[in-house]
Amino acid sequence: MSNWEDYVRRVEPYVPGEQPKKEHMIKLNTNENPYPPAPGVVKALREMNTDLLRRYPQPDCKILVDAIAEFYGVKSEQVFVGVGSDDVLAMIFLTFFNDAKPVIFPDITYSFYDVWAEMLRIPYETKALDEDFLIKKEDYYGENGGVIFPNPNAPTGILMPLSEIEDIIAHNRDVIVVVDEAYIDFGGESALPLIEKYDNLLVVQTFSKSRSLAGMRIGYVMGNEKLIRYLNDVKYSFNSYTMNQTALILGAEAVKDRAYFEETCRKVIETREWTKKELHKLGFSFGDSKSNFIFAKHASVPAEDIFEALKKEDIYVRHFSKERISNYLRISIGTKEEMQTMIGFLQNFLAEG
Amino acid sequence: MSNWEDYVRRVEPYVPGEQPKKEHMIKLNTNENPYPPAPGVVKALREMNTDLLRRYPQPDCKILVDAIAEFYGVKSEQVFVGVGSDDVLAMIFLTFFNDAKPVIFPDITYSFYDVWAEMLRIPYETKALDEDFLIKKEDYYGENGGVIFPNPNAPTGILMPLSEIEDIIAHNRDVIVVVDEAYIDFGGESALPLIEKYDNLLVVQTFSKSRSLAGMRIGYVMGNEKLIRYLNDVKYSFNSYTMNQTALILGAEAVKDRAYFEETCRKVIETREWTKKELHKLGFSFGDSKSNFIFAKHASVPAEDIFEALKKEDIYVRHFSKERISNYLRISIGTKEEMQTMIGFLQNFLAEG
Fold it and tell me: Nearest C-alpha of chain A: how many angstroms from B109?
């Protein structure tokens, strides 16, 4: 018999989160934006020149890169785009984390960092968050092969002040420091201005949350021109045409509408703050989320019981069975109406219990 | 000063082919299809439910995988899709080529195989095509860490008979054999039926050529269910959501229209055969291409001179400076009118010379 199986790269089979498809469900489990993308995006889709479909897209993604650079006031040479921030982050791991020393990141954090490290055989080490789920900056001062953490952190939603982030960068000038800002637009302060001061800093963002385009898979990273050039070299060698024509066109359109973007973020933040107050009244506790979700535990009722009760009502939130956080629920911020429905149900459910 | 640059993964900076954007150019340099995708594709784009834009796409790409499986009469569990066949092929290298023995492929072939091997630090060895640019099957019988070749081969366009491919597979039951069939629909015989007989065979195809969707970045591979499961495990670990909503919807729509697909391929084949006759009259020689391009050299005029002369007329073909093939031009098959224009110009140019 054949033995090709001996040489298969074995990975922990990752199971993507539930994608229920019920008509009237309330989907608060994947941190999607409850509002549609900017009106110009749908218009661009409907009016798209369909002769582009048979043509290869721009390998340099110029239309999208230029739009992002313009929005943030950086040079186009300081922007790299990919198929969601997962693609961008995986390319960063592949390009920059080649040292024998371990890459370091928090123990409770975005669940893909250790997966990429294992897949690409990169050594890594995790640093425990403190008892309030805060990152302890001093943990990141020692020798290492690179540093990565989200800000706000996932799934805690807790923001780190920019001064502490700068301390971490300043202590790590010999390696690449990656700040993963998927949720920065919901009240956080971006590390972006620091890319002019530190040539080893990469700031990663995404269109999946604040730009309402999870379905189009667009992520990007900003940093100094040399870092971006290295990323492009690796990307061109891997797959020159990753961003399809619709992603380029709709992405560029989404980033142009600053007023709509700000208005959408403001609404999500307002609803989040209202939800925090209501959850607090119901006996939940949580860190001060600056993201589009709340990571909460209840004083007496186990997270799993609440998760199951909500699910029976077709209200989907996220529960992780991982140590330290297994009694927490991650609740994405939907529309005000959706959150009212959820709070209304919890009022009854917790009163009964 | 910081020394993070010591740990950057260095790659040969790949330069993607020219993408000129002149109004009236004739673009015969990237093997795109001259005809638009099936009419249903544009309709699906115009009528797409735009609420999907803010939602993550199906991680299992079910709508597209099912449509491909239905077209080819295989099970959905035998189909894996990716962001163009480059993404699919890179995932195959990452998943299956982990042996210390070298992966083998032809010296003249698709230019990404050695790039992926180098990037992923996979040992490889090339086998020289014979003097007529044919693959010598016996070269692939020795011990190795995997086998990959395109059929028809690129950039020669020459097809290998299925019986010889089966010989190669049968001699390599302990490793994965990948047949890269990007151009198979233009007159070749696919190795697809052999996936039922050989559990170590992967057949890769793409929507970029015969399906007229280069702009949407859709590739796929078919093989036995175990192979596809391993690929999905690696893909989910790398980036769970690679195919965006429009790629899933338009791809599924494109594959449904068998009549349009067959008609388009037939037209490309007819134009190719007409072009062959005309090129032959003009003093060109070439292998018997079964792809949507012709790889030709002229009896007396250097390829580079013809390339430059065509370019001045805004007719773009492809020229590779690589050894053994530097006196050849790769000419994609456009519409009959485009080929007539090119032939007309060459008649004058070569008569003058």
Answer: 16
